[in-house]
């Protein structure tokens, strides 16, 4: 899956616990009829991928949707979702997929020996 839009915010890398888990969040505003501000997290070694990007830059981010269950002390299950990025690349013009460039129709080339009359009868 991919998210295409303009970077609104890039957070600093955060570290959690003694196990060395790190994550970095980026917010991308989509460019559609109803723009959405999507928060995407990059974890562990993927955090460094955001170093070469800046606010207001148009990007395409490859993502995975992650879901997990947590059971509270009362035994009630809660479900959480996250969006994890694993690749990011700069795009031109907001990432809009433009129509293919128009090409001129192929020129008619008459074979040698053919009559110039194009009517079949």
What does this structure look like?
Helix content is 0%, strand content 47%. By secondary structure, it is mainly β. Strands 1, 2, 3, 4, 5 and 6 form a six-stranded antiparallel β-sheet that branches.
SSE blueprint:
Layout: E1 2-10, E2 14-16, E3 21-30, E4 37-43, E5 58-71, E6 77-90
Antiparallel strand pairs: 1-3, 1-5, 2-3, 3-4, 5-6
Beta-strand segment tally: 6
Looking at the overall shape, the CATH architecture is Beta Barrel
- Level of helix content? under 10%
Specify the oligomeric state: single chain
CATH third-tier fold name: OB fold (Dihydrolipoamide Acetyltransferase, E2P)
List keywords for this structure.
121 residues; mainly beta; 47% strand
How would you summarize what this structure contains?
By secondary structure, this protein is mainly beta. Helices cover 0% and strands 47% of the residues.
